[in-house]
Design brief:
The protein is α/β, with parallel strands linked by helices and about 350 residues long. It folds into two domains: about 170 residues, Rossmann fold (3-Layer(aba) Sandwich); about 170 residues, Glycogen Phosphorylase B (Rossmann fold, 3-Layer(aba) Sandwich), CATH 3.40.50. The longest helix is centred in the N-terminal third of the chain and has 17 residues. The protein is globular. The N terminus is likely disordered.
Amino acid sequence: MTSLSQSFDAPRFQSLLVVRLSAMGDIIHTLPAVAALREAFPHATLGWLVEERWAELLCTLRYPRSGRRSPQRPLVDRVHSVNTAEWRRTLFSFNTWQQMAVGLSELRGVRYDAAIDFQGAIRSALLARWSGAPTVYGSAQPRENAASMWYTRQVLPSGTHVVEQGLALAQNAMQHPAPESRVEFPVDPDAEHKVAGLTANIRDFAILNPGAGWGAKQWPAERYGAVARELEKNDIQSLVNYGPGEEDLAAAVEAASEGTARRISCSVAELIALTRRARLFIGGDTGPMHLAAALKIPVVAIFGPTNPARNGPFGTRSVVLRSASSATSHARLREPEPGLLEITPGEVAAAARQLLQNQP
């Protein structure tokens, strides 16, 4: 096993594959590291292997997945997508095997010099190795221990926040400190036009995001409604973002808001466009919260069982609310964590006003 300090000679570096398949927040956390790689190797071919569901974070749907970079695909030269969930469901289908073969052939055809697995899972490590890249970088302490079997260069993790850990992995590939680089998201003209219409009559708005990956992280809907009523006193309208399966949750927030909040469902591209226009974001440890932070929108983050030191809003003005009684846990329990319920609507509203008052 070779140390990353014995990395390839940077002037001979021509192409690099980034592997970060999912999910939304994790992909966003990887963007600063990839932006640093782009700045360090401006002429290299930079590819990204991602789940199809999240490809819009890298490239608009109607834009080519490879070729000259543009506002529609600002960061990477190539986007390679997989659909591992669907493949697992239809493993014995001929079409599935055909899709897998075509995708792998396209990936190997680029002949990447090296791959970096930012995910640390067995499936991501396997795909990084199957890309044909002779050098595969990964953490010496990956999320799934067996993943390290497929790395040719292992990096000891450093940094507290997951963004810092990703930057440390990129830094080893660059052989010098990672520069601070601006994160860019695709600009979808259709999404921008639609969101401009939806918000045409709203001067200032906050995005409320009541959903969460699992119940233990989910602050109650009626409390979001109470926060919306408080924001109305500051002439801030609340838009309630919700995704598939969260219709009832968003409706409950809207009802509790007594007419001060409005539900809005967005595609990924539309959510990017909507978030760019927001004065404030309020929500828990979710992908949309990390999107807001990456876009430099002020964030009120409501934390329960997950650790904000590792997963909190990064790189933006924020107030993180977490009870001292909350213990870090990733157990996917259905009910809200008790410490999360100690956070009151008054505390959230006060944090929101603090951020609004300090905005330029």
